[in-house]
From TrEMBL:
Family from the record: Belongs to the NIP7 family.
Protein name, UniProt field: 60S ribosome subunit biogenesis protein NIP7
Single GO molecular function: RNA binding
Organism expressing this protein natively: Dacryopinax primogenitus (strain DJM 731)
InterPro entries on file: NIP7_N, Nip7_N_euk, PUA, PUA-like_sf, PUA_sf, Ribosomal_synth_fac_NIP7, UPF0113_PUA
Function as written in the Swiss-Prot or TrEMBL entry: Required for proper 27S pre-rRNA processing and 60S ribosome subunit assembly.
Pfam families per the UniProt record, alphabetical: pre-PUA_NIP7, UPF0113
Length: 180
C-alpha cells in the first residue's frame, strides 16, 4: 500500500473529474474525516486516513482490501473505474440520467441506454460526458458515457443510443470471479 505517484494521480483524477466535475474537491477536502487515495496491487482505494494508519500494521501479502476500491490500473497504465466506485460517484455526480422501469433490466444486463428507456436527463449534459445512471426512484444502477448532448437527445428516434454502458450493479453477478 503506497500513495499514488503524480502520473497515477493525474490518471485517477482525470477519470473521476469526467463523472463528478468540480465536485472532485469534496472528495479530497472532506469536513468530517480526511480521506486519501492509496494504491495496492494495481488497485486504487479511497480510504479514511485513520483506517489507513491502522492498515500500516498489516503485512502487504496479508492485506486484501482497504476502504472503497475505485478502480484499477491496467497493464498498459490506463485507469479503469470499477462498479465499487458507484457510491462515491453517485454522491458527487454532476450529470445524471434516470431510466424507466422497463429499461432497468436491459441496462443491468450490460446493454446501452436507448432513448425509449430514458426517463430524465440532467440539463446541459454535453456529449461524451460521464453520467451516473439511476432508476426512477433514485437508486444508482451504474455509470456510463453520454452518446449525445441533452439537446441532441430530444431529436433522436426511440432506438438510438443515449448512454454508452460502462459499469452496472449487475456486474457483481456476471463477473464475480474477475472483479475481486
Amino acid at each position: 500500500m503506497r500513495p499514488l505517484t503524480e502520473e497515477e494521480s493525474k490518471a485517477v483524477f482525470s477519470k473521476l473529474a469526467n463523472y463528478v466535475g468540480k465536485n472532485l474537491v469534496h472528495l479530497i477536502d472532506r469536513s468530517d474525516t480526511p480521506h486519501c487515495f492509496r494504491l495496492h496491487r494495481d488497485r486504487v482505494y479511497y480510504v479514511s486516513e485513520s483506517l489507513m494508519r491502522l492498515a500500516v500494521s498489516v503485512a502487504r501479502p496479508n492485506l486484501v482490501s482497504l476502504g472503497t476500491c475505485l478502480g484499477k490500473f491496467s497493464k498498459s497504465g490506463k485507469f479503469r473505474l470499477h462498479i465499487t466506485a458507484l457510491d462515491v460517484l453517485g454522491q458527487y455526480a454532476k450529470h445524471k440520467v434516470w431510466i424507466k422501469p422497463n429499461g432497468e433490466m436491459p441496462f443491468l444486463y450490460g446493454n446501452h441506454v436507448v432513448k425509449a428507456h430514458l426517463g430524465r436527463i440532467t440539463e446541459d449534459t454535453p456529449e461524451h460526458q460521464g453520467v451516473v445512471v439511476y432508476s426512477m426512484n433514485d437508486t444508482p444502477l451504474g455509470f456510463g458515457v453520454t452518446a449525445r448532448s441533452t439537446l441532441d437527445t430530444r431529436k433522436l428516434d426511440p432506438t438510438a443510443i443515449v448512454v454508452f454502458h460502462q459499469a452496472d450493479v449487475g456486474e457483481y453477478l456476471r463477473d464475480e470471479d474477475t472483479l475481486f
